[in-house]
From TrEMBL:
This is Extracellular solute-binding protein. Transmembrane segments: none annotated. Residues 23-62 are annotated as: Disordered. It comes from Eisenbergiella massiliensis. Residues 28-40 have a biased composition (Polar residues). Belongs to the bacterial solute-binding protein 1 family. Residues 1-20 form the signal peptide. Keywords: Signal, Transport. The keyword Signal applies. PROSITE patterns: PROKAR_LIPOPROTEIN. Pfam families: SBP_bac_1.
Length: 494
């Protein structure tokens, strides 16, 4: 059976390479960015860039040292990382590019200093799933860092180590897996009764809005006059449509911004906006027995809402990639945006027209799209303990402090209350926690082998609806039909 599963994975890898699907569209690269097909996006990944990333690249290229982090007192993991303990040994880590590569090179330098063990970092900004799978089946990698749906696919194929026993026998006394955010282990790390991953990076869509506009007394008065209610940060899609209309200059010449809404709606990212509201209308992407969970009318309602919302967005938004979409909002052209948390870096950057003017909240409707990344150990790795200790270091309480300035937000609840993290002054943390707690829909379909294919099916149909070639109903019918075919092709092996 395992040989058959690997054959299916290989076939789908080749198909993905030929058609351009796969980690070309992972949510993950969304979160600190969002779409791996773009220049290192997030929820899957997010765009790097900015002063923080440039500084991180310099640290990485010069070789990070433990002495660079005097505020951290437990990088040696309760003394379990000892000088020379892995001298002469080497492990290979596979990850996405940009910020991910930067982070792992920093930890590779620290790990070698503390243990003597060499960590080679191989980065793959494109086709991450395909290259990760090929590397795992050919024993090329000891560790992979991937979006959680991809991790689950690899686990289903038997390519990853169940770390349950090592958490008891190898982990340091204070690793404390219960410290991770509520549900993090269940969603990111556990699969089919196994513990297959370490939570690396949490990702959820966040609601960004121009708080200066919502607090403007003149605008509040005009909104109430037109809609008969107070101008408030929208809690529902219906309220969001009213606010979007009010702040769109073609509908309201007095609007101080051109558009009420903006988004990243190009192919590869547009499904996330649909996912953001599917739960509010009572649906889910995958229902019982791997069947579409949105054919009861909920999928049409969520997609029609999206099409109505886009009427109050720039026409170019259906071509916006991560960088373009974030820049557009940060320049002050729109009142609202749903995006992975890394957008705050653009808004709060020195010289940004929106610095200090943006608020962060729960996606209207309360069921945002969930991304996320995790680290796993290859089942074929001959250095299981060394690989475990490297993963433990990266995901430790102190390790998370090293990642945080490079758009890798904490997975651990305690770090959101820790003084050294509060001093970082990240304004999106509270909203991120709120959205993570409410998130119900994974950005990447959590079905082994076919996650990328289903993402392509959804994107093609949604794109056709966005340009007006088909209706919302026709798009949903097409998604359901094609998704069922894809799932049926592997259902016997699920």
């Amino acid at each position: 059976m395992k040989r058959k599963i690997l054959a299916i994975l290989l076939a789908l890898t080749l198909l993905g390479s030929a058609t351009g699907c796969g980690s070309g569209t992972p949510a993950a690269d969304q979160s600190s960015g969002a779409n791996a097909s773009q220049p290192e996006e997030s929820p899957a990944g997010e765009t790097s860039g900015g002063e923080e990333n440039a500084a991180a690249e310099q640290v990485s290229s010069s070789g990070a040292r433990v002495a660079d982090y005097p505020m951290l007192d437990n990088l040696d993991l309760d003394g379990t990382l000892k000088p020379g303990m892995y001298e002469g040994k080497k492990i290979v880590v596979a990850c996405s590019g940009a910020n991910y590569e930067t982070v792992f090179k920093i930890f590779a330098s620290l790990f070698e200093e503390m243990t003597g063990g060499v960590v080679e970092v191989q980065s793959f900004p494109d086709q991450l799933f395909e290259k990760g799978q090929m590397g795992l089946t050919s024993n090329q990698f000891d560790i992979v860092c991937m979006p959680i749906a991809y991790i689950h696919s690899f686990a289903h194929a038997g390519l990853l180590t169940d770390i349950t026993e090592m958490l008891d026998t190898v982990a340091s006394p204070n690793y404390d897996e219960k410290d991770f955010l509520t549900g993090m282990y269940d969603t990111y790390s556990r699969y089919n009764g196994m513990q297959v991953a370490f939570p690396f990076k949490p990702d959820s869509m966040v609601f960004f809005y121009r708080k200066d506009l919502f607090e403007d007394e003149n605008l509040k008065s005009k909104f109430k006059e037109k809609y008969g209610r107070e101008l408030t940060v929208p809690a529902t899609p219906e309220e969001m449509l009213e606010v979007a209309e009010f702040f769109t200059k073609s509908e309201n010449p007095d609007s101080p911004v051109d558009y009420g809404y903006s988004g990243v709606l190009s192919k590869g990212s547009s499904r996330f906006t649909w996912f953001n509201h599917l739960g509010y209308f009572g649906g889910e992407e995958i229902g019982d027995n791997f069947t579409p969970g949105f054919t009861d009318g909920s999928g049409v309602k969520a997609l029609q809402f999206m099409l109505d919302l886009v009427k109050f967005a720039p026409k170019e938004s259906i071509t916006f990639d991560w960088d373009t979409g974030n820049t557009y909002f940060a320049q002050g052209n729109a009142a609202m945006m749903e995006q992975w948390p890394g957008l705050y870096m653009n808004c709060e950057a020195d010289g940004s027209p929106t610095k200090g003017k943006v608020g962060y909240g729960l996606v209207p409707g309360g069921s945002p799209c969930l991304g996320g990344w995790a680290m796993s150990i290859a089942a074929s790795s001959p250095e299981q303990e060394m690989a475990f200790k490297f993963c433990e270091l990266v995901t430790s309480k102190d390790g998370e402090y090293i990642k945080a300035p490079i758009e890798m937000d904490p997975c651990r609840a305690s770090n959101y209350e820790r003084d050294i993290f509060l001093e970082l002054g990240n304004p999106v943390y509270d909203a991120l926690k709120e959205n993570l707690a409410a998130a119900s829909q994974l950005a990447d379909t959590d079905i082994p082998y076919v996650s990328a294919q289903i993402g392509d099916v959804e994107e093609i149909a949604i794109q056709s609806a966005l340009v007006g070639d088909i209706t919302a109903q026709e798009a949903i019918d097409k998604i359901a039909e094609e998704m069922t075919k894809v799932i049926d092709s592997v259902k016997d092996d699920l």
